[in-house]
Design brief:
Strand content: over 45%
Structural class: alpha+beta
Number of strands: 6
Mean pLDDT: 88
Distance between the termini: 29 Å
CATH class: Alpha Beta
Order of helices and strands: HHEEHEEEE
Helix content: 25-40%
CATH architecture: Roll
Oligomer: single chain
Length: 136
């Protein structure tokens, strides 16, 4: 079990991977606040969908998107099937990979989607926070 606290992780790859795992845990616990503590105030996100029908959102929009998923599904699970981390100068990092998002109502999954994602993380106040996220 991952506990999310006010403690910060050292700006290392291990700390970054821990923050990603804490975000996964917070989503499965339907805890918007715990997800958002890992999101920069400068956050910018965008979906890239074939045909150009994607959308963009800021930190407030991300919170609303998560709230919509939490209301729609009794349970959400994020399974990261692959992830690559690159640290740049100790204060910036990129995390890329593939994730499966499962929306579950009752016992069986109602919706499942696989996303490729790319993200940029910065060290803010001694901890890694995601500042940019693109998914497709």
């Amino acid at each position: 079990m991952f506990l999310i606290s006010g403690c910060s992780h050292p700006p290392s790859e291990e700390g970054l991977r821990t923050n990603v795992a804490e975000i996964q845990q917070a989503i499965s616990e339907r805890n918007n606040g715990d997800v958002m503590q890992h999101v920069s105030t400068l956050f910018f996100g965008r979906s890239e969908v074939a045909g150009g029908s994607g959308y963009r959102l800021d930190r407030k929009g991300l919170r609303k998107l998560l709230t919509g998923y939490f209301l729609r599904y009794q349970q959400l699970e994020v399974v990261i099937t692959s992830m690559e981390v690159e640290i740049h100068d100790g204060v910036e990092a990129t995390v890329s990979g593939k994730a499966l998002l499962l929306g579950i109502n009752n016992i069986l999954p109602e919706d499942g989607r696989v996303f490729n994602f790319d993200s940029t993380w910065l060290v803010e106040e001694g901890d890694w926070r995601v500042v940019e996220l693109t998914w497709r």
